[in-house]
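To whoever is covering the structure queue this week,

Two jobs came back overnight. Logging them here so there's a record in the thread.

Job A:
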Amino acid sequence: MAKARALDKRRKSITNIRKITRTMELVSTAQFRRAMERAVAVDSYTKRLVRLVGDLVASGLATDAPLLEPREKKERAVLLILTANRGMCGGYNSGVLRAALARLTQLQEQFQNVELYVSGSRGLSYLKYRKFQIDQFYGQFDHKPTFDDVNLIANQFLTRYAKGEIDRLEVAYAKFVSISKQYPTVEPLLPLADMTKPAEEQQAEHCPALGYEFLPSPQDVLEEIVPNAFRLKLFKTFLDAAVCEQIARMMAMKAATDNADQMISLLTTEYNRARQSQITNEIIEVVSGASAVQ
């Protein structure tokens, strides 16, 4: 009887866990859809704006833009790492952190000082455990980052870069390509010339002659476009990170739910066998007792 009771108790416990994982899967699915809609809506505009900046760099019209000028000095760099505030999302956080730490080693060889900026409690706890010094932490971003919140961070980076306090900014995050393809990556954001290199190469290969007309002047247009390109690119990284987190959690919870279903099925079979064996033994005892009395 004790074995059957233990199996039934374990089966009920796993059933309760399955309810939690199934609920988290449904919640992550709903949040993923909303996050993907926001990321897709921003993606085309961001790519076009970054490409425009790349075209201007390739044409030589953007030589006076401070944000596009590469820094010859190698004094201070900033690595921004985007992780999740919660776990139970598979290898999402570990993948981003591996890519970030690999790049951090390279930056420390190139620059005298490297600052670590971290978004997400999971990244903070991991880096603290590894005894890394965290210069700035952001814990306000979840599954729905807003442009206003990201813009505050972007303005801080723009101000520090303009003052010469930092010479390079890179961000480590999970890049969203499609629902079936996401991968951790590290991309440069400042100087903007490094961010627009793919656009420059595409422009040089396909359309060497630019046909832009500027009003009122190229310099006035650059002063408006270049900072906005940086803000939107940074915002896009936060949106991609949010989408990838929800996909990873959705898949992890689906796998956990499927595993729970298998375990419940196995435990049910074992419970039925144990219960059948117990009933058989009880019948044998009753029949044996009746025979002894006779």
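Job B:
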Amino acid sequence: MTHSEVLIRIYEDAQIKANEANFIPAGLDDDLIRAIDTIALRSESNKGVVTVLTTLLTHKIVEPMQDIRYHQAGMDGGFAGRGIDQSYVTPFMKNVSFPAMAESGWLTRTLEQPMPYTLDYSGKITPIAVKTAFLGIIDHIQEQGMSAEAVLLYFFICLVKQRDSMNVELAKPHSLSISTIIELLEKHFTVKYTGSGASRLPTLALYAAYECMMSEVIRYRDKYLCTLENHTSADKQSGRIGDIDVNYEDGVAFEGVEIKHGIVITRQLITDAYEKFKIYNTDRYYILTTANMDNADWTGINEEIAKIASIHGCQVIVNGVYTTLRYYLRLLNNPADFIHMYVDLLKVDETVKFQHRIAWNDAVSRIA
């Protein structure tokens, strides 16, 4: 396994694990966790330490028998850490927007000293807490047999969380045609993201459209748009009937929207949706998907829709997300308002991660 393969594999795992509350890889003791946290918290001001530590951990995974304290080829039993950093680690760190040096962590004078990274290493790494943490982590691995992979995974989880918490300036393109807006959204939804969160994007887009329509479409006069629930909230627990709810002034459900990302709508999904709104005087219920519905069981779907209409009176509408958005945007006086609403949601929604925000800017740059 190459250094690049190790970095990518552990990074992808870290992106997933970063979404799991309080996840810590097995085997890490409290002292080691505190040491990793110390370096992660000061990652922007100690980029050299971050880069060198990442290089050492990665090389230990590639070459388990190597004593990574001997970080220069000129040392007895040593290896060329700087070369590995320049060729693999620093380019990777820049690519994933982790704190990175311009060329190599070994260009930092305090880390380039020709002596092993033992606990008595005399390089003046500051602050002392970072030096103690750095050398302590390496000692845990070389003297106590700690897994370099577990350490690197937790370190990357910390860096992912820090990175994702940072604000990203999001593009707000103007004067786009409706067809271009739909193309832009499709590009944003269908990026091959790692980890969770992508399924939230179509919901945010539909919600942005409703925010615009509430003041422009007569149907929604004297109605109100409910705030978005947390992505993980169960409908039964929240009392909501869909991912998006529009209510009468007295709080009774007027219209609901359920959004599926990449899932073909089935008769059973419609039956399940009916259970959510059957006790309310709901006028319309949309079940929308980004998936291709050409091969769906339309006979069964239409039978279930007709059954609900006859029993309840609610009009259930099954459609594609993109088709629905295209129709909604045509109802607006200025579709550019929709872009502003969508971007504002991308900025604040807790489910949306750094990679989703960067992907939006990338999609805009490709459209422009």
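Note for Job B: The two ends are 39 Å apart (CA to CA).

Please reply-all if you pick these up so we don't duplicate work.
Q.
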